[in-house]
DNA sequence: GAGGCTATGGCACCTTGCTGCCAGAGGCAC
DNA sequence: GTGCCTCTGGCAGCAAGGTGCCATAGCCTC
């Protein structure tokens, strides 16, 4: 098998991936823009997990996958099956799959399908050159480490912060006194303090300092 | 020129990189474990910056480079010359250089030098295959985006937190009242509040909430 | 309309946090 | 020893935060 070759279409990709997964596939690591980037990847990963739970699978996705509720459900299912799912803070225009750290597949540049609803004959590139694969793998690791685990983004861990709570959060973060903040937000001191108290409950904090800490850790102060 | 080839030794690497930089080198993007990963890269980057300031250079390093004061000085110099320097949260075992997004070089696997102080004949891999380069570039982007800018880690931005201040920080973060925290730390209420006030100054905060937020953002609550 | 629910704001009262002032303790130089 | 400096703790007074209580306003249902 050559060290490096181009693949045309999903069928050819699948034909290349399948034997690798069956022969070596101890570890499946992928970065993808969405859930459709690696066709059948989801099904085959599930199959592998079911067959022998020990195999490791890691999937890194663009933040866009969180937008759709159905996609989130699929992600939760994957996580429940033992696949490690993380969400990158930045989009991942190119998809990458590493199988057992020795072979990698990359999606080709984005091309429009020949007809709007016709099959997309995407191209892929496969490489088994150790230097290339390990170099790209190191970059993947760096992206992986700083990505957020799906669990941390789940509904339970991520407190619900609506627009008003966010304004209160911002006011608190600006260092204003309650009097100034209430005036700024056009509400009475009493109501402002009510909002702050609710925020403390939401963040599970016993003091304002602790609430600020949580908010900072959760990145609620940015964006 | 072949799309993909192996290079032995720094001289050969340099011979390959130089014409690319001179011909196309509008952008130099690299990920490295330390300042020695890309020999002469520093000098050549400086040269390019000086010749035409418009050229873009980005360098992503492992956190280990911050350990040595001399290295930090070099990083500061690079930043002062317009090179964007960021520090990854995780080690980057493999070095990677992208030149103008069309050619990439990767360090080979780590090999011990033939003699302890002899020249290290490291191997490198070069590739100009668009799919490989753009795929790896996407991974680099993801790692870059989540890495911390050197400026944010500089001495000015990073407050000095000694052991005692850290204990106070921890007490504040636990949600205790001042009375309980002072008792816990074996100091009087007055002294505890002095420490808290000093901490606020250190963090540049006007309120305890703001201080907690800063501490959370700076990751001072972990480790 | 009456009744009920919810959100808001004003008030009062208490707790907590913040800081200026001063007294004492400990260390160091002379 | 004296003088000086720094750190600490107690006290006092004020500012700020926290919350229970109640009145009012808006809205929905019947």
TrEMBL record, chains A, B:
Signal peptide (UniProt feature, chain positions):
none
- InterPro entries xref list: Sig_transdc_resp-reg_C-effctor, Tscrpt_reg_LuxR_C, WH-like_DNA-bd_sf
Q: The HTH luxR-type domain covers which part of the protein?
A: 158-215
Which GO molecular function terms does the record list? DNA binding
- Cited Gene3D superfamilies: Winged helix-like DNA-binding domain superfamily/Winged helix DNA-binding domain (1.10.10.10)
Q: What GO terms in the biological process aspect are recorded for it? A: regulation of DNA-templated transcription
Name of the protein: LuxR family transcriptional regulator
Native organism is Streptomyces griseorubiginosus
What's the source species' lineage? Answer: Bacteria, Bacillati, Actinomycetota, Actinomycetes, Kitasatosporales
